[in-house]
Design a protein that fits this description.
alpha+beta; Immunoglobulin-like; five-stranded mixed β-sheet; 16% strand; elongated; binds heme C; binds copper (II) ion
Length: 403
């Protein structure tokens, strides 16, 4: 009798699966023998499990924790794997012993009660001590790993500090010193040099959000009035082509546009990164059109900064206005918009067409955004922007530094 025989061994009934009542009546045997059917079922299950494993194992998805590109994500994957497989081994051992006992020692017809035992000292000691050691070891290792993931290694001497502030519905990245003492504020795209540990301080302005870049690190909640720490790093040996883009998103439901609150981590070689830092600054208004655009931008400066890193006090003032329902809100810094690749928190590619779409009526592309909601001088109740086509073109030329 095989392992998977479910039919009681003492049953006198012939080995047969439940058959249709018609067949039953005709007394016709099921065409496929019971044993063959059961093993076929297990084979199907096995094949399905194998496919699932393969699908997960060689994932090339943009956001897969099974394809880490840095030390933090690798450590997190290692934690996952060790915990998972130790638990699978324990499960198989315990359930195996249980099944064995059930089948091997089941009551047989005409059998007296089996010998009664009241505990087995050696066994009791073994199955108390072994799990205790196992759980202690996994627990202690996990706690140390959690500490490791909070701060870059003490040996690192080139740490880059970035403060990440979550807003409904976009991410702000502030570098107190991006390089050479330069302060930078940008949005939705975190630019970092390869092989450099980046220490992140996570804040939130409004509700709880969560920071997650599956291939690099995460996830950690961003909680108003609190500050959380984590770090990440992109390893050169995991990157084929520069700049390399890693996808991230808010991982905690935070309101109507939560699903449209994405961001990217863009990894550069050190000299490309340095060039970005060097060139960060107000877009030069070289053409006449851009000059006119710069003047129109006066209607945007209450929320957007365009001439360098954001002033902390100014941002705090915008936040206060936002919290009491005023006409200002903290908004993405647009100083380096021309160097970015996306618009609306990763919603669309950045190009003149999409920028025009966005400005014309942000609600059409991102329902719930605070730009059209609060800028009453530009958008009245769901209508298009109150600027003329020419003014729109001018402002686009200025923002993107078009010649
Ligand atoms: C009331 C404040 C406010 C005003 C005024 C305002 N914006 Fe915005 N803007 C926002 C907010 C908030 C966002 C972020 C929306 C989101 O992604 O959810 C935004 C997003 C943007 C973006 C996309 C940035 C990115 O990185 O995705 C651009 C470009 C932009 N605004 C340009 C302008 C221009 C040009 C004007 C003036 C004509 C303007 N805004 C006026 C608040 C404002
Ligand atoms: Cu969010």
């Amino acid at each position: 009798m095989g392992w998977f025989a479910i039919r009681p061994a003492y049953s006198k009934a012939p080995a047969r699966l439940p058959t249709s009542s018609l067949r039953e009546k005709e007394g016709e045997a099921h065409p496929i023998p019971h044993k063959a059917l059961i093993s076929r079922r297990w084979a199907h299950l096995g094949i399905m499990a194998l496919f699932l494993l393969l699908a997960v194992g060689c994932s090339t998805a943009r956001q897969s924790t099974f394809d880490p590109a840095g030390p933090v994500a690798s450590k997190q994957l290692e934690l996952f794997n060790v915990l998972l497989w130790v638990m699978v081994a324990v499960f198989i051992l315990v359930e195996g012993a249980l099944l064995y006992a059930i089948i091997r020692f089941r009551r047989r017809p005409g059998q007296e009660l089996p010998a009664q035992t009241h505990g087995h000292l050696t066994l009791e000691i073994v199955w108390t001590i072994v799990p205790t050691i196992l759980i202690m070891a996994l627990g202690i290792w996990t706690v140390f790993a959690i500490f490791d993931l909070e701060e870059p290694p003490a040996s690192a001497d080139n740490i880059l500090d970035v403060t990440v502030t979550a807003h409904q519905w976009w991410f702000e990245f502030e570098y107190p010193d991006a390089g050479g003492g330069k302060r930078i504020t940008t949005a939705n795209e975190l630019r970092i040099p390869v092989d450099v540990p980046v220490r992140l301080t996570l804040l939130s302005d409004d509700v709880i959000h969560s920071f997650w870049v599956p291939k690099l690190a995460g996830k950690l909640d961003m909680i108003p009035t609190r500050s959380n720490q984590m770090w990440l790093q992109a390893d050169a040996n995991k990157i084929d082509e520069y700049p390399a883009t890693f996808f991230g998103q808010c991982a905690e439901f935070c309101g109507i546009a939560h699903a449209l609150m994405r961001f990217r981590v863009i990894v550069f070689e050190q000299d490309e990164y340095d060039a970005w830092v060097q060139n960060y600054g107000e877009p030069p208004a070289t053409s006449e059109q851009a000059q006119r655009g710069k003047a129109v931008f006066g209607q945007c400066v209450m929320c957007h900064t365009i001439d360098g890193g954001d002033d902390r006090e100014l941002q705090a003032g915008r936040l206060d206005a936002f919290l009491i329902g005023g006409a200002l809100v903290p908004a993405p810094n647009l100083t380096d918009l021309r160097t970015r690749s996306t618009l609306g928190a990763g919603l669309m590619d950045l190009n003149t067409e999409n920028l025009r779409l966005w400005l014309k009526n942000p609600d059409d592309v991102k329902p719930g955004n605070s730009m059209s909601d609060r800028a009453a001088h530009l958008y009245s109740d769901g209508s298009d922007i109150s600027l003329s086509e020419d003014q729109l073109n001018d402002i686009i030329a200025y923002l993107l530094n078009l010649q």
